[in-house]
Specification:
By secondary structure, the protein is mainly β. The protein has two helices and 25 strands. Helix content is 6%, strand content 41%. A hairpin with a 4-residue loop joins β18 and β19. It starts with 18 loop residues before the first strand and ends with a strand.
């Protein structure tokens, strides 16, 4: 969902880019920067009391869809009064963008009063080729005053056309620890490699992971080596997008890249699909802070493309990153929205990692 977290307002008109604002009688709306669920902004509607009054709604631009796909919309919502009426509506259009029908995926007068996240399936009509999402806060038919705030709206297409499927290869490796498996549940059995003959190597799917939440599925690799150069390569099924992802775990004190992940898909692909829950490929640091001298870094696309060019020649991307490169700590590179998995964009970089370049070691 372009600008689904409402961060971008290039013309400073109080309405997030890619959205259109409509207000009901007695209603108002504005960005909320005090308690967003994601990023720096959310969007809040205020409904005054009185019959016929309302808050308003945001409506997205046109987005493409197909009836052969299974689409899911996710969003975060909270209301100051649980009884206010809120609706998340999907409006469907044909190939000429003529309205067909709509679907209320969420319609409630029993809303959460603190941030809650919901996901609902969309039912795509047979003739639909486009849709819009409409976020209604404080609908007119229920006379309850209060505020409703939305944030982090995302669309996921869980099924793709078979002709779009292919296999891709991702790699992880470096220091002892857990790594998110490239491709997650869509990955085949990984292959392993080490750079030092005679080194002690250990590889497993989970190790010492007693802190994991019960009832959840995990796809993680554990790599251990006394030379810190064990790598795993995973081939997996995907319909991946146009951009490659390379993360590194960097020791700022010793100027050393400790570990890395490289794949055509974001680490959340095949691992739940939520880029907030799986923001990077180093799960040992999901629920605990990094050591003061460590930093997780997403590499910029210039560095990424150069590394891929070298890897096509040498067939060993991760070892080259670990051995030949250092991180340019002089400045952080501006983040540009990036394709997660061919179906969604990551509009804003999470605060848990930085965005930097690599430089060849002298």
């Amino acid at each position: 969902m372009p600008n689904g977290s409402f961060e971008i307002d290039t013309d400073a008109d109080g309405v997030p880019d890619n959205w259109t604002l409509n207000l009901y009688a007695g209603g108002s709306a504005a960005f909320d920067t005090t308690t967003p669920a994601h990023g720096a902004k959310a969007y809040k509607f205020t409904r005054a009391s009185g019959a016929g009054n309302g808050g308003g709604y945001l409506e997205s631009g046109y987005m493409e869809c197909s009836p052969i796909g299974a689409y899911v919309i996710g969003f975060s919502i909270k209301s100051s009064a649980a009884g206010i009426k809120n609706i998340v509506k999907i409006r469907y259009f044909d190939k000429d963008k003529v309205y067909i029908s709509d679907q209320d995926v969420y319609s409630s007068t029993s809303n959460p009063t603190s941030w809650a996240r919901y996901q609902y399936s969309m039912t795509i009509p047979a003739t639909a080729m486009y849709y819009k999402a409409r976020l209604i806060g404080g609908y007119t038919d229920t006379d309850v005053a209060g505020d409703t705030t939305y944030d982090d709206v995302a669309i996921s297409n869980k099924i793709v056309n078979q002709s779009m499927l292919k296999t891709a290869t991702g790699q992880v490796g470096g220091a002892t620890g857990h790594y998110t498996t490239p491709g997650g549940e869509y990955a085949f059995m990984p292959a392993f490699s080490n750079g030092v003959a005679g080194a002690t190597l250990n590889a497993s799917f989970l190790s010492n992971s007693s802190g994991l939440a019960g009832g959840s599925w995990y796809s993680m690799l554990y790599l251990g080596s006394d030379s810190n150069d064990l790598a795993a390569q995973c081939r997996y099924i995907t319909s991946s997008g146009t951009e490659f992802w390379i993360f590194v775990l960097y020791d700022k004190q010793y100027h050393q890249i400790m570990a890395s992940y490289a794949a055509p898909d974001h680490p959340c692909y095949g691992n739940g699909g939520d880029a907030n829950a799986v923001p990077h490929p180093f799960p040992d640091y999901y629920d605990k802070p990094l050591p003061e001298n460590f930093e997780i870094i997403l590499l910029d696309m210039v560095t990424t493309n150069e590394l891929r060019r070298r890897a096509e020649i040498e067939r060993r991307l991760i070892p080259r990153v670990l051995i030949d490169y250092d991180v340019d700590m002089s400045e952080e590179v501006d983040f540009i929205p990036r394709d997660i998995d061919g179906h969604r964009l990551l509009m804003h970089k999470p605060t848990c990692y930085s965005h930097r370049r690599l430089v060849l070691k002298q």
